[in-house]
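To fix ideas, we close by showing one paired sequence and structure record:
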Amino acid sequence: MEQGFEYSANLTGVSFLLYELKQVIKLERESLNNREIKEKVIKENIFQYKFTSSLKRIAPTIVKRMQVLDKTLKDMVLEAPLETGKAINLYAIMKTDKLFFEFMDEVIKEKLEANDFIIDKKDINVFFTSKAEQESKIAGWTENTYNKLRQVYFKLLFESGILIDKKSGTIRQLLIDENLRDHIRNIGDIAYLKAMGDDEVLL
């Protein structure tokens, strides 16, 4: 599958949201379409949020993440162990956010390949600076946007299990379930396995 989304800073308003992804997959199993899912999430407060505005902002993002998953991956999110669900959720985020995928591919993957298991703010700042030099859209973002994205990136790394110590910035390779690895390989998305630092495909 080709990563075709444009650069955006949409991640500033969302985060890992694995629980929410599970809820929309369950709703799809009830034969609801994407529009109906969004409507039900908002009307019935499926995510149990305090503010309706948060539901309206998050629901489209979660549905979009669900849309890039096939039935096998959706089933795994609901039925496989938590760590597998986290890996699939990270995959879905990369599939729907071009900049974050490139961060994973160009920063995290390269660090793991080099046995460099520390990430800090400088690494992300260098990445943003490089992208801003290549893309005028990114160059036009405010410092506040960069700061928010930096915070979200660290949070995504931590919640996915790649970042294991926030204070030291220690990262690790994800241990990908064999069935998940084989499936992602079979659908032609090995680049995403590599970006997640899967030790089997980095060898």
Q: What stands out?
A: Residues 14-91 form one domain. Strands lie at 163-165, 170-171.
